[in-house]
Amino acid sequence: MFAKTLQNFTQNPKNDILSGLTVALALVPEAVAFSFVAGVDPLVGLYGAFIMGLVTALFGGRPGMISGATGAMAVVMVHLIQKGNEVGLTLAEPVQNLGLQWLFITLLFVGAIQIMAGVFKLGKFVRLIPHPVMMGFVNGLAIVIFLSQLGLFKETRGTVPQWISGLDLWVMLALVGLTMGIMFGLPKITKKLPAALIAIIVVAAITIFGGLDVSTVGSFIRDGGGSGLKGSLPMFQTQIFGFIETLDGHWGLIFSTAFILAAVGLIESLMTLNLIDEMTETRGSGNRECVAQGGANILNGLFGGMGGCAMIGQSIINVSSGGRGRLSGATAAIALLCFVLFGAPLIEQIPIAALVGVMFMVVIGTFAWSSFRILHKIPVSDAIVLITVSAVTVWLDLAIAVFIGVVMSALVFAWKNATRIRARKRIKEDGTKVYEIWGPLFFGSTTAFNSKFDVSSDPDSVEIDFIESKISDHSGVEAVRNIANKYLDNGKQIKLTHLSPDCKALLLKWNPEFETIIKNSVEDPRYYVVTDTLDAEA
């Protein structure tokens, strides 16, 4: 594994380094903005982005994917931090910013949950997410990224943010347009230089040497109440263990918040991993990513970061700029820390308009425009799922949207399959009535299955043939057992043919006398039933 990781670092160093620098510049306002959303100091968000980015770049399951402080997790943290701050002021010796200490403690549990998810290989379940849900996730996230950038078109006058207007608006729109134009046109001339980085440098040079009075990274931080980017190395937070006693009566809040943060982080990370897999036509390891995300969040709790997960916008910037290896993510993280330690005065002069232009191009590249073309060609149920997931992602939260989309898709799938079960009926020469079952037999189709039989009117000899059917779960096995018992209770002969070994074992466990009615054949299918097969074999 070490040799493979080292090879990944040396495959494409120039593109990875340049792409990493581009991502680092785009990470700054994002990390700062999400810090304000969570109600913590901007340096906490920047430390979180550095730790998340470095750990997942080195040990994660998807080279080229970028992790950092994210809005999806920031909005979950708000209530915990506010509650902690309120409790801190009521203590015998009041504690300022107790909510931040609670967050660090919570991140330890978040990391543990995520590591356990990786150890128990739960990352593979992301493959169960249907394509309409994936498209809805992408579209919804693109809209969220777009809307988050609109907030940068405001300036604080007094204490109230207001939309910029007049000449200031036109100048910002021109700079945004120039950034987007460079990113669109430069790749048509040469692909040796990362378009996003060149666009940021050009627009920054115009504003700095032209003396334009525009919103910059530095003014954005100060308007939000921060003191600037300048900071030191992340320090080990030994004090958090002294605040554990303040959690008496609040452990429920800690554990519930930790579970939600872990779920949101893993869902967004694994969905982003799938998307980058498609873009690069390679395959990452979801389970390894779970462990890396968990380890990074534990380190965030120990070293004063706000935690986070994979970032779809920055990941797309990285991949689009040529960053495909682990070196790109590591470069972005280290460059971000260098900005904090040494380059704060320079980075604070970068115009916000340049970074907004970069993110607008990310929005254009992220949104699945093909969904408009195929919307009227796909089944209505899939179209509804796609639109619902997009809307819920924007309205509520990514994790909730994905959960709703998967549940909707599962219900639609179950309903469609429940209506597909059929029973062809024929009479043999000896008078035996044969039911040839076709279609899946599971919890959704048992009612339809039972309706196919007329126990009282059937002849004395009946055969049920499952050669074209598959019994999928416990409910299906139970339906077979019940219908067989009905025939036996009515004094009629019943034969069950072409059952899988798994089905036979389960039926014989509950009804040993079925050994005389279950017929074995070389044509019997072999498949497993989703039920307690271990008990059946015991």
Automatic annotation (TrEMBL):
Record's keyword terms, sorted: Membrane, Transmembrane, Transmembrane helix
Pfam families reported for this sequence: Sulfate_transp (PF00916)
SUPFAM superfamilies: SpoIIaa-like (SSF52091)
Ranges for domain STAS: 430-507
Compartmental location: Membrane
An annotated GO cellular component: membrane
Primary subcellular site in the record, as a coarse category: membrane
Membrane-topology descriptor: Multi-pass membrane protein
InterPro entries: Membrane-Transporter-like, SLC26A/SulP_dom, STAS_dom, STAS_dom_sf
Superkingdom: Bacteria
Transmembrane domains' residue ranges: 43-60, 102-120, 132-151, 163-186, 193-212, 251-276, 297-317, 329-347, 352-372, 384-415
The protein, known as: SulP family inorganic anion transporter
